[in-house]
Amino acid sequence: MSTDPGRGEGAPRRGATVEFRNVSARFARAGGRQGAAGAGGVMAAVDNLSLSVAPGEVCILVGPSGCGKTTTLKMVNRLVDPSAGQILIDGEDIAGVDPVALRRRIGYVIQQIGLFPHRTIAENVATVPRLLRWDEGRIRGRVDELLTLIGLDPGRVRDRYPGQLSGGERQRVGVARAMAAEPPLMLMDEPFGAVDPIVRARLQDEFLRLQRTQGTTVLFVTHDIDEAIKMGTRIAVMQQGGRLAQYSPPDELLSHPASDYVARFVGADRALKRLSLLTVGDLPFERGGAPAEARLPELTLSTTVRDALAAILASPAQAGVVTNGAGEYLGTVTLATVARAAREGQGRNGRLPEGGASHGRTGGPAPPPSPLGTY
Ligand SMILES: Nc1ncnc2c1ncn2[C@@H]1O[C@H](COP(=O)(O)OP(=O)(O)OP(=O)(O)O)[C@@H](O)[C@H]1O
Ligand SMILES: [Mg+2]
């Protein structure tokens, strides 16, 4: 693990690999008398967890409250050390890595935001770049770039303190701070929980766009299965007692839940949820010809099939026209087309292209490899 801060501006980089090998975390039971209580006084927050995350993947941890999601993240940057098992980053057992050096190369968005209250917003975002001794001009540029990205006007918020922002704004600053030094690995604990649905969708999209460009590996905790399906290349469904119930790409999770527990967790509407993994461009819709009716809802090739279905259901003719976005007619999608897709399933999501560095669903170009552990 080198500590070289001198990576060239804009140089492509690649995400880290993360591997959990039979990892457990045990805590003394609340109220339990340690020592006197023996094994009965200890509970497993994480129980024999094994999973691998490839470079550039977004691994989502979902599960009910208390199932060990936060503990799993905290073991990756050594805020909690495993009671058993190993965690490897880029093949190296982190038990032997200095926690401070480790944390500098990992972006961390904690569940309760955790901004430094006596530092300004700009100082908060600049935390890691400053530790890495970036020059002031570069830091300032990066801070303003990130604040703009998360939808906050740098001129308005740069010199404020966290207490002078709303909860949702603070949460966005937490995301910007974790992204500041473009770490090869990010740990995000319910990062978009406190923002409204519209801002949330925008942050999710922006984050995915950046994550794809930079090839960052991400471990991302959420309670929200829809967010998991949207963001994840792979989803780890956990259950009480810190056990892994299934670890699969979203499409597989929805089409082949491994147990009744997973099926219940992903929801009875899982066939419908799968439609959000498909776009109209994936459908075998009838191309060419003239639209049968002029007043059909307009869809484009990138409209999700779920959105297309909503539009089709709302249209009297139960169909929609597909255009190229500039008004040129390409074909028609009917309710029957959607029903067929739901039955057959044509999800491409989660199947990483070779090299595994891009987000499967959107098929963006994989960033070229670059040396790992660059700080
Ligand atoms: N430091 C600790 N000492 C004792 N028990 C702990 C500690 N940290 C977590 N736990 C317990 O371990 C279990 C898992 O906690 P964790 O915070 O990982 O859950 P979580 O899945 O993140 O839950 P949530 O969705 O509510 O955030 C819980 O029962 C919790 O009470
Ligand atoms: Mg938690």
The largest sheet has its strands arranged as 6-7-8-3-9-10
Helical/strand content category: alpha/beta
Shape: globular
From the N-terminal CA to the C-terminal CA, the straight-line distance is: 7 Å
Ions and ligands: adenosine-5'-triphosphate, magnesium ion
Q: Helix coverage percent of residues?
A: 25-40%
Mean pLDDT score, rounded? 83
Low-confidence stretches: 1-12, 34-38, 346-375
For the biggest sheet, the summary is: 6 strands, mixed
**Separate helix tally:** 14
The proportion of strand residues reads 15-25%
* SSE string: EEEHEEHEHHHHHEHEHEEHHHEEHEEH
Q: Care to count the β-strands?
A: 14
Rg for CA atoms: 23 Å
In short:
The chain has 375 residues and is α/β, with parallel strands linked by helices. It contains 14 helices and 14 strands. The longest helix has 18 residues, at 197-214.
